[in-house]
Design a protein that fits this description.
9 strands, 11 helices, 2 domains, alpha+beta, 253 residues, Arc Repressor Mutant, subunit A
Length: 253
Amino acid sequence: MTNTLSTITAKQQEILKLIYRYRFLNRIHIQTLPGHKDKRRIISWLKDLREKQYVDWYYNATDFIAKSKPAIYYLSLNGIRHLRELGIYPDEELRKRYKEPGRTQVFIDRCLLIADCCIALRAKSSGELQYTWVLAADYTDPDSEYNFLNELKPHLCFVKQNDEQTTGYLLEVLDPLMPRYAVRKRVKDCAEYLASGGWQDQTEYDEPPVILIVCPTIADLIYPTQEAIPYRTQDLCNISPGVLHCSPKCTRL
């Protein structure tokens, strides 16, 4: 006999879909990304979802410092079952959600950072200036117009659009403990993608995307970048603390 899932509201179902896309979110993200204004209602919905085992959380009520921070939510067994029953999410991607309880803090922090970035983009969107974005989970959907990014898998893809021009951006967040050879390979993959023209072939845009690479310190990125990319560093990079701005307009040596 198949266990019947507990009933949840349409708004709670939207929360499950949101967490599926971002992997890990805190209460502020869950409230802000969809534009909800009632904090108490969000807390009530999340409490109900936890009690019904649709979501679980990381929250330490016994630690004074930890309990002052928002709880971090991820999909639990019934949440995954619910999404599977919808029949719209790839099995390969859903299987990854069973491993969420064992994710490293580095992985969780990256997911939260991506959510912060999306909230910042949402806040900047106004009038003629609009930002839209898709996440790594969206690339796996074969019907997505950004399915072509499933091989490169940037952590975030966003598009800035106004009356004058449209610019695409691919954001890559490098883990603090990532070995230098892995950083070098990832930077090289991004540079080769720029040179391939794949973005222009798969989209309606004439210009390649800008690739933004985020790392803990500038030093972590400069030397692997020089080793990985056969371009003049000064033409390729506009470096500010923690960010390497890769321009598609580079001069080969």
